[in-house]
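Researcher: Next entry in the queue.
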Amino acid sequence: MPVNDIGAIYTPSIYGRTSFPIRHNAEPIFYKTFDGSNDSIVGLSSDKITVREHFFKTGEPLTYNAGTGTSIGISSLSPGNIGFTTYLPSTVYPIVIDKDNIRVALASSLARQGEYVDINNLGIGSVHTLLAEKQNAKSLICIGNIIQSPISVASTVGIVTYTNTSLQLDKLENIKLGSFLRINEEIVKVSAINYSTKDISISRGSGVMGTPQKNFSGIITTTPAEVLSGNYNIVKDIIYFADPPLEGKKINLTIPVADIDFADASFTYFTGNDANIISGSQAVFYSENPPQELITGNVYYLIRSANNTFRFATTLFNAFNGNYIEFTNVSGNEFPVASFQLFLILPTENNSFQGRVFLRSNYDGNNVFDDVSEQFTGITSSFELTISGITTVGIRSDNGIVLINNIFQYPEFEESFEFREVGVGSTGQTFLDFKGFDDSKTYDVNVKGLPRGGIIVSYGVTSGSNYLPLIPATGYAVVSAAGTISNIYFGDNGSGYRSGISTYYFYVDNGELPGDGGYGTISPNGFGLIDSFEILSGGSGYTYNGLSTSLTTTINALDPNGTPIGVGTTSIFEYYRGSPVNALNPGYVKIDDEIIKYTGISNSTSELTGTLRGMLGSSGGLHSSGTSVVKYEYYYIIKFDAPSPYDDIPLSGSTSGIGASVSFEVNQNGEIKNLLFTNKGYNYKVGEVLVPTGTIGLSTQIENDKLKITINEVAKDEFAAWNIGRLRKLNDLSPKVNSVRKIFTLTETVDGRIRRTSLEADPGGEIDLSYNLLVFVNDILQIPNESYVFLGGSQLEFSESPSLGSSVKVYFYEGFDGDAPFFQSQTDIKEGDKLQIQRNIFEAPPLSQFIRTAKRIVSSDTLKTEVYTSVGLSDDSSQRRSISWTPQKSDAIIGGEYVSKSRDEWSSGITSITKISLPIYSGLTTVGYSTYASGTFVGVNTNIIGINTNAGIGTLLKLGDYVEGSYVSIGVTIVSIGSSYIDIGSPGITSTYLGDSSYSFSPIGTNTIPVSFYRIN
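Model: Structure for this entry, 1017 residues:
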C-alpha cells in the first residue's frame, strides 16, 4: 500500500522540519480515531465499530484508548472475558468486516475464529483511538530513491550519573554527536560530548524521534541505555526523521587535525566524485572544542579556495565573494586534537518521497533487527540477528529487507546473503550469512565484498624524530688499465635506503670522457646506508685513472676547514689532464677517502693552493701527516639510484587491523612531515597506537622518538534489517535490457524451468499490485506508477527504457501465507502461436476471424496480438466464442525480437534425488564429455542408496560438485549394486544439458568425492 501523502517534506535550510504526518489517500494509516459515544459508529446491536479506511488485519493487536473519556462497555460474558471486565481493555484484536467496519475480540486466536465481544454500552468522549503496532517493521521509506532505515539497537552503554539535560556514561563506544539513546522508552539526542569526562549533553522532548519527555529516576543508572542507529521512527501517524529531509545530497565528513591549516583558516578534503562541493555548499559544524569564531551546531557556507581546499563563511553572500572566517590562535579555542565533523548538503535536483506500508494477515514475524555493524570487520561474513539483544527464529522463509549503507542487499545466497537458522524455539538463533568473494588480496577491504568495519577515520599524531632523510649516495669510479670499471668509492653512503623495497643500481657518468656500459647494484645495511656494491658490467673504453701518481710525504695535519696541503714534490701535481693547473683546469687529489680540488701550486712552500674540501661527493675529514696523497688524472662520477620515497609504509601496533599504510617526508633534521594515509585499512580499533615499520630510523633512535598514530575514530558500513514479510524472487531482467525495450515479461525458475509468472489481485480488492513489486534498476528502488506501471499479470512496463548494461531485478511481496495471489502461468499458449477466434455457433454472425499471432502474454487469461480490423468483430461483450490454437512451428521475429519455437514443457526434465559423498576406489577416471573408465565406489551401505534415494541400477550419477537448481552434465549410470558398493561400468549417458561442464578425476585411491543422483522425469 503506498504512503502517498507526507506533507511538505522539503525544507530550504538545514534546520528544517523533521516530523511529518503519513497518510494514504489523506487517511492516517496506523492511528485511527472515532467517536466512541456515537451509536451510529459503535453498534450496540451489531457489535460493529465503524473506523473509516482502517487498514487493519484480523487478529493483529491494537492499542485502544478512550482519551479523556470512558471506554466502551462490553458484556462480562463476552468470549475470552476471563477477568469479567465490563469495558474494552487497552489491547484488542480486530475482526475485519470490510474496509470501514470491524468487530473486536479479546485475543488474536478468538479474532481469527470470529469470536467477538458483546458491546452493551457506548463510551464517553468523541476521541477514542486504535493504534496498530510495529509501524517501523511494516514500512519501506525512501528519500530521493534511497531506502531509509528504521531505528534499531546498535549497542548499550551504562549511565553513571544524570541530570535532566546531561548524562555521564561508562563508555563512549558508538557515541557521536547526533547519536540517539533510548532510556526507559524515551529517545534522547546527543548534542555535545566531553571526551575526557564521558559526559554528554542531551536534547529531549517529543520532537526527538517522537517520544515524550519523562522524569528520570534512579533506576536509569541500573538499566543500560540503548544506543540507536537508523534514519526514522514512526509514532502513531507521524514519521520522525533523525535529520531533516533536504533538497540535495547529504554527506558526513570527518576532518582529522592533520588536514587542518589553522593559520590559513582552511581544511583539506579530497572531493573525488563529490565535485558538487562548491562555494556556497551548506555545512553544519560539530566540534568538541571549536575555535572561538565557530559555534558547534551552526550552519556555515563553504568557500572552495582551491581544488581540495575549503574555508568557512558566515553567509551565502560572503561565500560567493570569498569573505572567509579568519581564526585567531587563542588558548583554549584551537581545533580539537581529534577532528571536527561537517554535515554537508550538496546541490542536486529536488528529492522525492516514496513510502509503502506492507499489510499481511499475521505480523508476528515483523521485526526490526538490532544493528550488527559494530561487528563488521571486512573479514567476518556471518552475524547473528537479535531483537533488543534477544535471539530469534522463524524468519528464514521470509527474505526480509537488509541494507548496507542504505543499499538493498539482494536476498538468497547466490545474490548477497541468506538467513540461516540454528535450533528452534527460545534457544534458536538466526544468522545472516553474506556471500562475499574469494580473493587472496588482503590490503583492500573492498575486494572480498563483505561488510566493512574498523576503517581509520580520525587519528592523533605525535611527531617523530631521528628518522632517516632520503639522501642519494655519491661516489666515483676507478678504471683499470684495461679500461673497465674495477672499483668504486663512496663519497657519501646516502641515507634512507631500505632493503626489500627495490633493487638499487649505480651507473658511471663519464660526461665528456670516453667509456661506456659500466653499471652495478648497491645494497643498504640495516641503518639505511649503502655499504656494499656489485659491478655487473665493467663497461669498456674508459681511460685508466688508477694510482697515476702516488706520493707519501710529511703533509700538514688537515682539519675539515682546509689547512693547505704540503705535497713535498710540487711538480708531480702541476699538470692535470696534460695542461697546467688553474681555475679553468683544476686538479684533484685523494687523501684517504676525501677528494680535494686545487687550482694552483706554491713551489716555495710545496703546497696546493685554492683548495676545496670534500669534493665530488666525498666528505671532508681530519687527516694525519704522512698520509699518502694520490693524484687523479681522470675522474668518473658514479650516479646512484635515489632511495625509495616513504610511500605506502605499513603501520604496525594493532592486534587485528589489516592494511593501513602512510606516506610522509623526512626533513634534514630527521623529522616527519606531510603525513598522509594511503590506505585507511580495516578491522582497527579505537585507541590502538600505530607506528611505521621498516628501516626508517637512525641507529640512535629510541622508542620515544618514533612517530605514533593514535586511532580516535573508525568507520564502518551502516547496517539495517527488518522483516516486512515474504519477498519472492523473480528472474533477473538484466539480460533483456537493450536500451529500447520498455515492456518486460515476469518469469520465475521452478524446478529448473523458466515459467511465466502471473500476478493477479481479486477484482475490487484493496491490493495495489504495483506496490507489491520491488523493482530495482542499478540498485535503486523505482517508484510505482511513475518509474513503471504494473497492472497485474505478467507484463512490467517502464516509463523509460533502462539503459544498456543496467541491472534490473524484481521481487514480489507475498505477505503471509496466502495473503497475495501468485500464479505461475500454466497456459500452453506462448508468443508466436497462431490463434483464430471462431464464430458464435449458437447465433447469427459475426463470422470467424482470420488467424492472428500471439505477440505478448499479459497474464494467465490475457494476451495481445497484432491490431485486428478485419471480419468477425463484435461489440457484444457477452458472447463466448471458441478459439482455435496452433502451436508455433518455426522460429520467428516478433516485435523485433527472436522467438524460438521450442517449449520448456516439451523437454524432458532431470530431477535430483539426493547428493552424498562416497569413497572412490582407485581406477575411476572421468575425462571430458564422453570418455569414462569403469570404476567402483566402495564402503557404501546400499540399503541407504536404495531406500533414501530411490536409486537403483540405471540411475544417473553426476561426479563432482553440484549446484542446486541447475541442469548438469550426466556422466555415468549405476551398472550393479552390491552389499557395500556401487559399480559404474560403460560410459552410459554422456549428453550435456545446458552446457554444464563434466567433472574430471585421476585415480585417487580411497578418497571421497561428491556424487549426485538423478532420475529423468
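Model: The CA atoms of residues 188 and 204 lie 5 Å apart.
Researcher: Noted, moving on.
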